[in-house]
UniProtKB/TrEMBL annotation:
<dbReference type="Pfam" id="PF13937">
    <property type="entry name" value="DUF4212"/>
</dbReference>
<feature type="transmembrane region" description="Helical">
    <location>
        <begin position="15"/>
        <end position="40"/>
    </location>
</feature>
<protein>
    <submittedName>
        <fullName>DUF4212 domain-containing protein</fullName>
    </submittedName>
</protein>
<keyword id="KW-0812">Transmembrane</keyword>
<keyword id="KW-1133">Transmembrane helix</keyword>
<keyword id="KW-0472">Membrane</keyword>
<feature type="transmembrane region" description="Helical">
    <location>
        <begin position="52"/>
        <end position="72"/>
    </location>
</feature>
<dbReference type="InterPro" id="IPR019886">
    <property type="entry name" value="Na_symporter_ssu"/>
</dbReference>
<feature type="domain" description="Sodium symporter small subunit">
    <location>
        <begin position="9"/>
        <end position="84"/>
    </location>
</feature>
Length: 86
């Protein structure tokens, strides 16, 4: 496998991770917080309905979790492709 092929495989894996993270974030923030909010209004969480919770806190917590998961997965991806930092 040439260096160009290795770089392309690394970039494709990186883009796949980014796209998956963005899809999850969009579903949680836009989907649960805005589009599905009326459907989630009957479920109580912490004294408020679940749709409001996702709009105010849930999407932020999921976004923070995605940051840590992305960093962890990128470190594994870097090691797998031999481009890790020391």
């Amino acid at each position: 496998m040439s260096d160009k092929d290795k770089a392309l495989a690394y970039w494709k894996a990186n883009l796949r991770l980014i796209v998956i993270s963005l899809i999850i974030w969009t579903i949680v923030s836009f989907g649960f917080g805005i589009v599905l909010r009326p459907l989630l209004s009957g479920i109580a969480v912490g004294g408020t309905d679940l749709g409001f919770w996702f709009a105010q806190q849930g999407s932020i917590l999921v976004f923070l979790a995605l940051i840590f998961i992305y960093a962890w997965r990128m470190n594994a991806l870097d090691r797998a492709h031999g481009v890790e930092e020391e």
